[in-house]
């Protein structure tokens, strides 16, 4: 399945956010509009985090040293990545260094030394300090995001441990054998506490793993199918959709990642059949 352009999706979500802000300024923003505004902001944040992960994964961070001509060397350009994955170009304001050599004519004395003129600008220590401070700020912001993600994962684990009641999945005679076996394993080895919604129920690591291994790297396919699974009326309907997804994306139905995904769906429909 084809992946939509990340820039197009980001522009679309920014358009939704802009519309919501206009309603807010005009005083026409309803509670439902506010919920949509929050969801769009959350999804924009998550898509940018995933995009940043893919940039790291494909090893395009940093700028390699440029090719230097025989007598000219341009100062290297640094491109740090800010908190939300956008790229700001900060170039070091310094003049290129030239080395000029004047060749001797035939009439000149052979012992005469050639004239060299070199212009080597001195580095500005104040500007270097500013760049170092900016780089440190970017590193601190990235570390803050990683700490927040870690805290969210810990909070989710605590909520699961403190949930008051557990649910055992029910089985349908029409479901595939591999899914029945997975649900039996879930029933025997995991406590299945209900989830009110699948939206926002996945950690960043879970999203990246499911997108890459179950949805062929398509974040759009992952998001759209999660929304459909979240809106289904029962676990039986979810089983039918899961069986179709397994065929469409050629899942390894014996893998742990598939069982982890089905476990989330079982939690969502814990109150149903």
Q: What would you note in describing this structure?
A:
There is one protein chain. The chain folds into three domains: 6-57; 64-123, no CATH class; 177-268, no CATH class. Helix content is 55%, strand content 5%. The protein has eight helices and five strands. The protein has helices spanning 6-26, 31-57, 125-162, 177-189, 204-214, 219-231, 235-248, 256-268; strands at residues 72-73, 77-78, 90-91, 97-101, 116-119. The radius of gyration is 29 Å and the shape is globular. The two termini are 31 Å apart.
Summarize the entry for a quick read.
This protein is mainly alpha-helical.
Low-confidence stretches: 63-98
| Rg of Cα set | 29 Å
Strand order of the largest sheet: 1-4-5
Count of discrete alpha- or pi-helical segments spanning 4 or more residues: 8
- What structural class results from the helix and strand content? mainly alpha
Globally, the shape reads globular
Question: N-to-C terminal Cα separation, in Å?
Answer: 31 Å
Domain count: the total is 3
SSE string = HHEEEEEHHHHHH
Main sheet overview: 3 strands, antiparallel
What is the percent of helical residues?
40-55%
Strand element count: 5
Strand proportion, as a percent range, falls in 5-15%
Give the mean pLDDT. Answer: 75
């Amino acid at each position: 399945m084809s992946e939509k352009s990340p820039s197009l999706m980001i522009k679309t979500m920014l358009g939704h956010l802009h519309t919501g802000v206009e309603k807010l300024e005009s005083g026409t923003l309803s509670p439902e509009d506010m919920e949509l505004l929050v969801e769009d902001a959350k999804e924009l944040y998550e898509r940018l985090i995933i995009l940043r992960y893919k940039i790291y994964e494909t090893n395009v961070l940093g700028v390699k040293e440029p090719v230097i001509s025989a007598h000219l060397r341009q100062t290297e350009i640094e491109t740090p990545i800010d908190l939300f994955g956008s790229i700001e170009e900060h170039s070091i304001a310094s003049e290129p260094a030239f080395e000029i050599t004047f060749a001797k004519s035939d009439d000149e004395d052979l012992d005469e030394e050639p004239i060299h003129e070199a212009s080597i600008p001195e580095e500005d220590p104040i500007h270097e300090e500013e760049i170092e401070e900016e780089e440190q700020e970017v590193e601190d912001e990235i570390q803050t995001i990683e700490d927040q993600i870690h805290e969210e994962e810990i909070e989710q684990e605590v909520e699961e441990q403190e949930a008051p009641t557990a649910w055992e999945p029910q089985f349908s005679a029409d479901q595939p054998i591999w899914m029945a076996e997975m649900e039996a394993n879930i029933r025997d080895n995991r406590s299945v506490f209900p989830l009110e919604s699948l939206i926002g129920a996945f950690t960043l690591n879970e999203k990246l793993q499911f997108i890459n291994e179950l949805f062929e790297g398509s974040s759009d396919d992952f998001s759209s199918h999660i929304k459909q699974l979240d809106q289904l009326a029962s676990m039986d309907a979810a089983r039918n959709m899961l069986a179709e997804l397994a065929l469409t994306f050629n899942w390894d139905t014996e893998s742990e990642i598939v069982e982890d995904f089905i476990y989330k769906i079982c939690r969502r429909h814990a109150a149903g059949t």
